[in-house]
Design brief:
This protein has 68 residues and is mostly helical. It has one domain (2-64): lambda repressor-like DNA-binding domains (434 Repressor (Amino-terminal Domain), Orthogonal Bundle), CATH 1.10.260.40. It is 66% helix and 0% strand. It is built from five helices and no strands. Helix 2 packs across helix 3. It is globular, with a radius of gyration of 11 Å. The two termini are 12 Å apart.
Length: 68
C-alpha cells in the first residue's frame, strides 16, 4: 500500500503540473519536507492528505491506495 500511495502522490503532482517545490510552497513547507511524503520517509498529516485529495479531485481512499 505504501508504494501505491507514493506513486499516486507523485503521479498526481506531475499530472497537475506542479514541481515538488511549487507544491511545497502551496503547503507552506519546504521542498525537502514535501519530498519525504512522496518517499514515505514521513507520515503525511491528515489535513495535508485531505488538501491534496481536494486539489487533485480525488478521494483520500484513492490517494492511500484503498480505492481504485
Amino acid at each position: 500500500m505504501h508504494n501505491i500511495f507514493m506513486n499516486r502522490l507523485k503521479e498526481l503532482r506531475v499530472e497537475a503540473g506542479y514541481t515538488q517545490k511549487e507544491l511545497a510552497e502551496k503547503l507552506n513547507m519546504s521542498q525537502t519536507g514535501y519530498s519525504k511524503y512522496e518517499t514515505y520517509e514521513n507520515d503525511i498529516p491528515t489535513k495535508i492528505l485531505i488538501y491534496l485529495a481536494e486539489l487533485y479531485g480525488e478521494s483520500v481512499g484513492y490517494l492511500l491506495g484503498v480505492e481504485h
